[in-house]
Amino acid sequence: MRSPVLSLTWRLARSSGRRGLQSQLLAAGAAAVGSFLLLVMVAAALGAGTRADHTTWRTPDAVPAKRATAVQATTTTYVRDEPVTVVNLTQLPGRKQTPAPPGLGGFPKRGEVYVSPALAELLHDLPAKQLADRFPTVRSYDAIGAAGLASPDELVAVVGRAPGDPAVSEAAGEQNYYDDGLTDRAPVAGFAGTEASLFTGADQGTVLLGVVLLVMPVVVLAAAAGRLGAARREQRLAALRLAGATPRQILAMTAVEAAGVGATGALTGALAYVALLPALAALPYGVGAWYTGQLWVGLPWLAAVVLAVTALITVSAVTMLRQVATSPLGVAQQADPRRTRAIRLVLFVAVLAYIWMSTDDGGQLKARQLLALLALFYGAFWLFGPWVVDRLGRIVGRRAKRPATLLAARRLSDDPRGAWRTVSGLVLAGFVAGFFSVSTLGADGAPHQGQVAVITANAADARHTAARARTALHEAGVTATVAVTSEDEYDSLLGGVDGVTARVFGGRESVDAAVTALTPLGSGRYPVTQEYASASDDTVTSRVATVSAATLVLSFLVAAASAGLTAAANVLDRRRVYGLLRLSGTPLDVLDRARIRETVIPLGVLAGGTTAMGVFGAVQLNKAAGTTVNTTGALQLVLCVVVGALAVFAAIAGSRPLLRKVTAGPVQTSD
Q1: Are residues 412 and 392 in contact, defined by beta-carbon separation less than 8 angstroms?
Q2: How far is CA 653 from the centre of its chain?
Q3: 3-state secondary structure of 402
Q4: How far is 479 from 662, CA to CA, in rounded Å?
Q5: Residue 460, SS3?
Q6: 453 contacts 527 by C-beta, under 8 angstroms
């Protein structure tokens, strides 16, 4: 026998009227936003890994001398404060031909120079004395293809050298403490390396950190979509339950309706992601913009996200109907106060204790463990939030002296889960703000800006090189003072290495010209600048700063959208209550102030708590990284919390016209 569930669900959905359609459109919109953001997060995480894989060939993978067919010396120079990765290659005589590096048409011959498109453009735009003269003079540069690049904006050069060229000598590969990840040399037989470049190796980890912190607000938004129209649905299905429908039929009808709305919204979000891929690829991160293919997640991930959002909305809607299935008469009479139990507090305290013990070990946690603890914290606070809202409602209700405060307190205690859903996005965003505003890792580098240094083999060579450096700088038209640096001067740019240091006057262009002029004096190594010496710390700092800014903005936008969505849904769901209050003589302004206070009361308590928790998590991360807390983050933290709160209040205020419209005809809307 054919089940009447589908036909009845469709009939009820069609007859739900304009307000029912509004709820469904809001739910579909929230599902679309959630699906879009989840796909973007997955794309960023997978794309960051793909970009790192495209740079592994540049790190020399040493092989025994007998098996080597070439010598690879990878180093880094800077122009306009941007890193230029230079891969010097030479084919060993009498050995079989070495395969071509990724993105190159063949193994570079002596004097051939391959450059990335972005570097080719820079070579064309800048005077030769600032950049081009650092490389062998050629008629034209060959191009490096996308297979050998992490980003279309990346600056990379591959130079073919003679076997005896200083750029591929053993001296070119000698490492100091700041050379790790920037300079290396080894005999090779191919380019199947496994270690990513310094400038891409940390990208995926920082993206995952942002994903963990952002995924919960997105889940909150999707869950809120599943609960839109919950009160209307409960009343309608309770009536059907009293008329003889079975619990299974009630749950099936809800699941079908929610799944249809959720799938429509999730597919819309997925299509928006596909359409906006070129725009998303243009957003810079790390070494620059993305190749569009790097951000394409593939059909399996696309389908998985759509199904996950649909399932989340469906489960969220179905879990709201447990009371309908077990006690339809109580739902019909609206006799469910929705109290919470103290077990939530016990579990929350237990989780916090576990997190505290896990992080109180001298900062030895790995990145994955920290991410897992952050996710655990989110789950614990999601469980704890409704219990706090319930208790706040009871406490405020006993001390309320104004009608609006009393109404707000009653709503908090009668429906703590609904009130928590309204503020949960910003409460969890407060944790993100507290975490990132303090965890911006600050690396206090030595004040050596405007200096250029050349490494020498010993002090005698340094004195000879100093005279040559003065001549080279004078011929290049660069004003600078040149001094010899000894191995005892640990506070110098070279950090206790013999060499020559030039203090350049005239700005960034003069520094670039000085680097170019001093390049022939480096015995195969490029001159060192402040950017080179602090690259390891600066790279992590810049990635964290980028992810923190993006996460903060998206968290507050999602939180505001979630709060506005929930506020609009509450107006539609409570239209009968609002109508009865208007019939009893309650002014509309009192109802509106009650809605605002229903948000302000739990927000002030819970957002402050999660912000403090975020600061604690940031301190632990800084401890693990061996860095100090960002002392300028306090102002940023206050600004983020204030702007976020204003955004949420603005979103709630956006439903004020809906409240006025719903209560315009109280005689009709109260039934």
Answers
A1: yes
A2: 29
A3: coil
A4: 75
A5: helix
A6: yes
Amino acid symbol at 519 = T
CA distance 295 to 289: 11
Using the Cα atoms of residue 490, residue 496, residue 501 and residue 507 in order, give the sign of their dihedral.
negative
Which helix (H) or strand (E) is 381 found in, with range? helix 367-399
Q: Output the 3-class SS for 485-511.
A: ECCCCCCCCCCCCCEEEEEEECCHHHH
- Which H or E run includes 189? none
Rounded CA gap, 512 and 384, in Å?
56
> pLDDT tens-digit profile of 242-290?
555 666 666 777 777 778 888 999 999 999 999 999 999 999 998 999 9
How far is CA 557 from each of CA 270, 359, 643, 645, rounded to the nearest angstrom? 19, 30, 10, 11
pLDDT digits (tens, 9 = 90+) for 182-226: 999 999 998 988 889 999 988 988 888 788 778 877 877 777 776
DSSP H or E run through 481 = strand 479-485
Contacts of 604 (CB under 8 A, 6+ apart): none
Pairwise CA distance, residues 519 & 134, whole Å: 6
CA distances from 74 to 152, 160, 201, 246 (A): 20, 12, 16, 71
Quick one: which H or E segment has residue 276? Answer: none
At position 120, the amino acid (one-letter code) is A
The HSE-up count of residue 388 (CA atoms within 13 Å, CB side) is 23
Residues sharing a CB contact under 8 Å with residue 17, sequence separation 6 or more, in sequence order:
none
Could you report the per-residue pLDDT of 569-599, keeping only the tens digit for each? 777 777 777 878 888 888 888 888 888 888 8
Strands (E), 287-368: none
